[in-house]
């Protein structure tokens, strides 16, 4: 057995040629698998564009051993996990994350669907219509078409310029030669020698290796197949070109450099610190954002995309912006990277320290080095020297070190007295509480529902304003970036007059982040005028974005006479979770300097019991899209348990009925959504060829069938669902969101345990009664759609 380079990471090749990456991370609460097939859209026969993407879809349609209702997607979703797949230019990825006890069963389903697809003709014809619907949406999506236009400067023969999504015309399913091409592609590439399996979880390396071996035994063995090298990205005399369209300017650079070197360059090119390229462009009023990324990399070819979001003045200065870009690149090439390499290593290490199981597995499937080596640096130097030879003219500065990445001295964990263990944490004595020496804030509390003996925690802060919050300014965007690099995910959400800050990840840098937040919120230029309109998203995503504001504004209107100083009358409350005592005290001290008044009580969303409400949201394109949100009749834990079980039972049958059987659309989903402490069932559909009435009617018909579905179900899923709410198995981010919503609903810190018990003990009759109340709109029905009201909402 090969000796691992890291004591918790092992890479090996099994006897049948399957390459395996195993990562043992004891801190993880879930397991994940990422299976990469070395074949993508550019490997498919030229005669059948989209064939690789089509096959990816077909593999999820079930096998003889595991039909679709028992296949990987349904199984993972039933156990509260996440699952997806992606077809790229030269790879196809399948990945999922689940609780540890069901990891082996999920892996078995993944192996079975890869090894034994049915590829039945009727299923192919149905699934082709799904790709046709996706193609229509893709062709109407402004951002997708923008990405196509960016690549038109490449060499005409390069496959990046081609169409690879697949549609009704490019996938002639009934033709024999197409079937031969489909099966031939599957035979060539979907075998062990063409695959890499990455597993990540809390199990030992030996346990993970046993799971990998069992998975490998289910695959068809085969040799590694070389993928054909593509033609040159650009002509012999060209290696870069600009693309300008409205407020977007892109510089595309073709090169031969390793991904590690290019990612290193992009990190510092994207930096927001003073003295950098973005800061200079913002100071001149030319650009509001810069995003550099590796757009493509295969067989020694790399395509770097440096994109600028332009201000009106910048649209008239594309050549001047290119001059500044070249000048910065020359400056960077001539700089000493020693400090940046050390900072970059800390950044990568911090991201691995905080990544969940799925992120770790997917990172390992990329097989990238964790440090920028001397050869990487030399390759990058060579690239930069070919781009710009003249000395830099501008007085640029390298970005300073991220203050949140600096390692604080290790301190003994507070909160335990002699004789205590971590199991006693939360049972602090009165003397210990007094010893913290902090001034308690009335609206800030710290929950002991999550153990404080890990490195992770969460903090939620919510402001209630008298008017809708304007757009975020540059200071908070920089704070977000620095926090993310330090292992803390920081997000800001506006819903009506509420402004919510979520912070989750490593708790060590959190007090310093809150201190910087307090300073940033005090800046006069914090809020900015709304930037140029972002490219419209697909309709269903626009509706999802509008839903929180819609529900927050129910029964409430903004104060038209609000003070221009947003903080003058602002009230805020907060909740910290999973934080050790010293961190709680530091956060308490830092939040005392936040603007607004810390207050115990917050705004409660007004119930809409018995009401049918409709809100029209303008979206781009002409496809019909609809969301139906059905709140529980009350905020009691019994009602929440009923609603969660209904969602658990309905998820797979709803998808099967509307997407597979009725083929209403490609965006079909259902599940639980919590908004401002209010638990509700959410159903969503987007269709390219069915009007809104044709979307609402099948949803209502499905809801009417729920009592019969409950009566006919052998297993209501009580145990499976209840297990998903254990603090010991919930990832910190998910547990924190549940506890925050419970806090808003008025539940105590012990919310998870009684919720588990109620879910476990709900009977068939409880659910039948709940389904009847759902159909009677006992908690109300809120519909968001991109058209006028239909049906019962008229």
Automatic annotation (TrEMBL):
TM annotation in the entry = none
- SUPFAM superfamilies cross-referenced by the UniProt entry: LuxS/MPP-like metallohydrolase
Domain Peptidase M16 N-terminal, by residue range, is: 19-142
Signal sequence segment: none
Q: Per UniProt, which keywords does this protein have?
A: Hydrolase, Metal-binding, Metalloprotease, PQQ biosynthesis, Protease, Zinc
Residue limits of the Peptidase M16 C-terminal domain? 182-332
Instruction: Name the job this protein performs.
Output: Required for coenzyme pyrroloquinoline quinone (PQQ) biosynthesis. It is thought that this protein is a protease that cleaves peptides bond in a small peptide (gene pqqA), providing the glutamate and tyrosine residues which are necessary for the synthesis of PQQ.
Family statement: Belongs to the peptidase M16 family.
This chain belongs to the protein called Coenzyme PQQ synthesis protein F
What is the protein's species of origin?
Pseudomonas gessardii
The organism's lineage? Answer: Bacteria, Pseudomonadati, Pseudomonadota, Gammaproteobacteria, Pseudomonadales
**Gene that codes for this?**
pqqF
